[in-house]
Amino acid sequence: MHSTQANYLRVSCHFINLHANIEVIEYGQKRRRGRPRKDSQPSLISHIQAEIVPKETATIATEQAGRFILATNVLDTDKLSNEDVLRKYKAQQSTERGFRFLKDPLFFTSTVFLNSRKTVAALAMVMSLCLLVYSLGHRALRQSLKRGSQTIQNHLGEPTATPTLGWVFQCFMSIHLLTFAFLKQISNLSEDVCWIL
Question: Domain map of the chain by residue range?
Fold first, then answer.
């Protein structure tokens, strides 16, 4: 913080008004966990309470950053209105998330080395097909939960009607088929997982 005008201090895109009431609030904070010793002194913490005023240039920069242009080659507004263009643009986020899933290190795509263009194209086709199957499973899961007005628990243990298929796959990761002396047994198969199935 440094002084730029007689009555203001500059903090990035805002000013601190020096003519308004400025309070310094101090309080003690103990240094360690548990009960403090009799001779220990708490560390002193200070907070400044003041009025903050935004700069005009920051407001202009925020307004400029909030604008973007969407273009389309469909010029007939009866076929595609401005609202439809915006809706379709926002709907691409799910597709982008899917391709981010393909680039995930857990997918091990970066470990594959390919020589020819044909094998690169074949791998891209297989991965796109995997993404299609994943997206269809994701959609079918959410639609079936919506039809039955049901929920499943998310990773925080809270009920949700919009889980990701990746989370459902993680629920099945600890389930194993054990074979011992010609006897087959499934381990870690809980009632929640059976209900999801």
Answer: 2-31+40-65, 69-111, 113-196
User: Rounded CA gap, 154 and 143, in Å?
Assistant: 17
CA dihedral sign, ordered 26, 32, 35, 36: negative
N-to-C CA span, the chain: 59
Report the C-alpha gap between 101 and 169 in whole angstroms. 14
Tokens 């198969």 sit on residue: 189
Residues 6+ apart with CB under 8 A from 161: 142, 145, 146, 150, 151
- For the record, the structure tokens of 10 come out as 């500059």
With a threshold of 0.85, does the pTM exceed it?
no
39 three-class SS: coil
| CB-count exposure of residue 160 (10 Å: 0-12, 13-18, 19+) | middle
Residues 6+ apart with CB under 8 A from 113: none
Backbone angles phi, psi at 152, to 5 degrees: -125, 165
CA distance 169 to 137: 11
Q: What is the pLDDT of residues 83-101, one digit of tens each?
A: 888 888 888 877 777 777 6
